[in-house]
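Q: My labmate handed me this sequence with no annotations at all. I'd like to see what the chain might look like in three dimensions before we decide whether it's worth expressing. Could you predict it?
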Amino acid sequence: MLSSCPLPGLFVTGTDTGVGKTLVAAALANWFDRRGVRVGVCKPIATGCAHRREGLVSEDAEFLAHCANARQPLDLICPQRYVEPLAPAMAAQRAGRPVDWAVVQRSIDLIAQESDRMIIEGVGGVMVPLDDRHTVLDLMVSLGMPAVVVARAGLGTINHTLLTLQALRTKGIRIAGVVINGYPAESPGIAEETNPQVIERWGKVKVLCILPQVQALQMPHLPADVIGAMDAVDWENLASHGTIA
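A: Here is what I predict for the chain of 245 residues:
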């Protein structure tokens, strides 16, 4: 499918769509950039893209590029873009434009040449089909990067998170840990308060940090409380070794 990622880094996946993968991936890129590390970002495939004067644009890729201080153009950061907000396999089929894996490989290789660490963001959850043969899980296997799993805070997240962890382990993917996103700090319920410890116990995984609710991602602003929560984690060890030393 693809060659393994040539740099240490992290693959950001999620338990579902809309769980905050872009926020976490952008905050990761920002973490490395603030430490003087040349961080490359890539969202290989995006759907639900917007028509702009310069062409079809992924707003997620725009946010990643901004938070990483990326040197590369957006069409390299997000090489495969589709208009309809569907699973990539269906969006590509309806557009009559299959995913071009050679183009994805070229993007990753070129970004890696100008970077020291790599953050790659997936699309949807791990079982989302990318084409007739491959899922996000297959993409993760081929890249060989440790996975950061982004999960919701509320009721239902235990099942979604444990199933995601199980799927990753069946393919031998290293799991760096779980980031819980969208925690209602002002009025958490019992589910939000207890879910982290249940996920750690039953998932045999570390909940790396808990991010507060964010109303909307607005460039060029990454919320200060998100930055603060991310700063409590040693992401360099996770990117380099897949675990915290």
